Amino acid sequence: PKECTLAVIKPDTSEELREEITREIRAAGFTISQQKEMVFSRDMAEEFYKQHRDKPFFNQLLDYMCRGPCTMLILSKVNAVEEWRRRMGPADPSKAKETAPSSLRARFAKDILENTVHGSSNSQHAEEKIQLVFGEISSESQVIST
Ligand code: CMP
């Protein structure tokens, strides 16, 4: 059965790289059912990453995610959650280069924090984050273009 996931292209990317990544997403057979550029408010980023609230890098993560626009994408495909995670590769690009050299993070990420892309870790999170970003709460953040 078809499944949805939320993909985020993070603020460490150029316009050119965003286009490259969305091209690759389509070429991999995902349907992009919704897309928008958005700057996270601090509150919304906190909510988005609440699962990481107690991590030592939480504040750095919020600074990074709020410093510029993100491209938010709803991807749909059979097995979308797992497949998007596989295409991203491990969070740490040095590990990604070893174990998944063709993955997006292996090719484009700077380090474990500024790692270019995000994907929901399971379909329940996907549903929750899609609601947060594309549902009514998202009106609290600044939408740059749709
Ligand atoms: P993401 O997949 O969006 O989920 C949580 C994010 O926290 C992760 O990508 C990175 O941007 C960041 N992150 C994860 N682990 C670390 C770490 N050890 N140090 C700094 N940032 C991290």
TrEMBL record:
Residues 2-141 form the Nucleoside diphosphate kinase-like domain. GO terms for molecular function: nucleoside diphosphate kinase activity. Signal peptide: none annotated. GO terms for biological process: CTP biosynthetic process; GTP biosynthetic process; UTP biosynthetic process. Belongs to the NDK family. This is Nucleoside diphosphate kinase-like domain-containing protein. It comes from Tachysurus vachellii (Darkbarbel catfish).
